[in-house]
UniProtKB/TrEMBL annotation:
Record's subcellular location: Cell membrane
Record's protein name: MFS transporter
PANTHER family for this protein: MACROLIDE-EFFLUX PROTEIN, PERMEASE, MAJOR FACILITATOR SUPERFAMILY-RELATED
All residue ranges annotated as the Major facilitator superfamily (MFS) profile domain in the record: 11-396
Native source species: Ornithinibacillus salinisoli
TM spans (from-to): 12-38, 44-69, 76-95, 101-119, 140-158, 170-191, 220-247, 259-278, 285-301, 307-332, 344-367, 373-393
Keyword hit for Cell membrane: yes
SUPFAM superfamilies in the record: MFS general substrate transporter
Superkingdom of origin organism: Bacteria
Membrane topology field: Multi-pass membrane protein
InterPro entries in UniProt: MFS, MFS_dom, MFS_trans_sf
Keywords assigned: Cell membrane, Membrane, Transmembrane, Transmembrane helix, Transport
Length: 405
């Protein structure tokens, strides 16, 4: 493969455009569904059940998604899942347009939608090392994750604007259009993926066990996964569910909530751009330092009663978080056997995404039992900080890792 700019790599361009459109469609689906359950079904208590139906199957099936990513062409998986998700959204649109979209239909279709997402995530992540040079992997991850942050910011904005004009029905229709457009850009002949590396014939269970054994044998991967779990359970997951509670506690309005959420996204976006432009050799130390910095800011976040200062702190949390994930992601992709890349990436994805719902549930339970939200976030942050400092002290292999790129 000749060295070329990522923006002259047609395969990469089609991949990130397709992924960007898919994220917009996915976030629009979330936003539209949230509004539909609260306004049309008049059942705020049902919202949690719907969101669990969408997210939990995705988490449970993610490991198997990695197995498929190693067995079949990743572009075929991504195209197929986006196409089916688009069709599901069209069905939801038609049901709502006919006033037939019930709570049960939404749970069933939402769970299928979320399950399919478990296959596209590992496939897309493990495709990157196949289409770019090794010294471009970090930059490629930064671009794709940066676009992801933009997608999750503008998706709800588009959804809200569309629903303001055409209602929930229009919201579902436009989200379906975005997802079907993403499938178009992921059409396998456009991406021209190379042959499948994994040619060993064995059962899916043995494939999964092989991937798990590979991860367990790597101290670098185990430490990195522990760092991601610490970040997403003790910091990001806990703070995400705490933000609306804190806004209400301090007498804020929806505009204050939007400011804090936007500041979090902008912080992640800016740091992602910086990471994409600079060389980071000490990837392991950077991830640990990013985790410690995030948790220190989280401690301050738990103690400040001013919504404007909380907005600034949310920016810092978003800014420091990406220094945890992107360097580790890039290093894992650089050093993992291509034959087993999908399974490794699925386990990494599980560490990133699987602990957010658990953090949501834990924080919500503690608050419902009468614990002060500030005390809960402070406790989470301190425990996470202790873990991070222990990794800094004990994780010599991870701490001393240097990338050649």
């Amino acid at each position: 493969m000749e060295q070329q700019s990522l923006f002259r790599n047609r395969t990469f361009i089609f991949l990130f455009i397709g992924g960007f459109l898919a994220l917009i469609g996915f976030s629009m689906f979330f936003m539209t569904t949230t509004w539909f359950v609260i306004s049309d079904l008049n059942s705020a208590s049902s919202l949690g059940i719907i969101l669990i139906a969408i997210t939990v199957p995705r988490i449970l099936m993610m490991a198997f998604g990695g197995v498929l990513a190693d067995k079949f062409k990743k572009t075929t998986i991504m195209f197929s899942t986006s196409s089916i998700q688009g069709v599901l959204l069209v069905i939801i649109f038609l049901l709502h347009n006919a006033n037939q979209l019930t709570f049960l239909y939404l749970i069933i279709l939402g769970s299928i939608f979320g399950t399919l997402d478990a296959f596209s995530g590992p496939a897309g992540t493990s495709l990157i090392p196949k289409i770019v040079q090794k010294n471009q992997i970090k930059q490629a991850n930064a671009i794709i994750q940066g676009l992801g942050q933009i997608g999750f910011v503008i998706g709800p904005i588009i959804s809200g604007s569309v629903m303001e004009i055409g209602g929930v029905t229009a919201g579902y229709l436009v989200s379906a259009i975005f997802v079907l457009l993403s499938a178009f850009f992921m059409f396998p002949p456009f991406l021209k993926e190379g042959p499948v590396v994994n040619t060993i014939k064995q059962t899916p269970f043995k494939d999964f066990v092989e991937g798990l054994s590979y991860v367990k044998a790597s101290r670098f991967l185990i430490t990195g996964i522990l760092i991601l779990i610490t970040l997403n359970f003790f910091a990001f997951g806990a703070i995400s569910i705490a933000i609306p509670i804190l806004v209400e506690t301090y007498g804020g309005t929806p505009i204050n909530l939007s400011y804090i959420e936007a500041a979090l996204g902008v912080g992640m976006l800016i740091s992602t751009a910086i990471i994409g432009m600079i060389k980071i050799r000490r990837r392991g130390l950077t991830s640990i330092a990013g985790l410690i910095a995030t948790l220190i800011v989280a401690v301050a976040f738990s103690q400040i009663p001013n919504l404007y200062i909380l907005t600034a702190l949310a920016f810092l949390i978003g800014f420091t978080m990406t220094f945890v994930s992107i360097p580790f992601f890039a290093s894992a992709q650089e050093n993992t056997d291509p034959r087993i890349m999908g399974r490794v990436m699925s386990i990494v994805f599980l560490a990133m995404n699987g602990f957010d719902p658990l953090a949501y549930a834990t924080v919500t339970l503690l608050v419902s039992r009468g614990f002060d939200i500030q005390l809960v976030i402070l406790s989470f942050s301190i425990v996470g900080l202790i873990i991070a400092l222990s990794i800094l002290w004990r994780g010599h292999t991870f701490r001393s890792y240097k990338s050649n790129y």
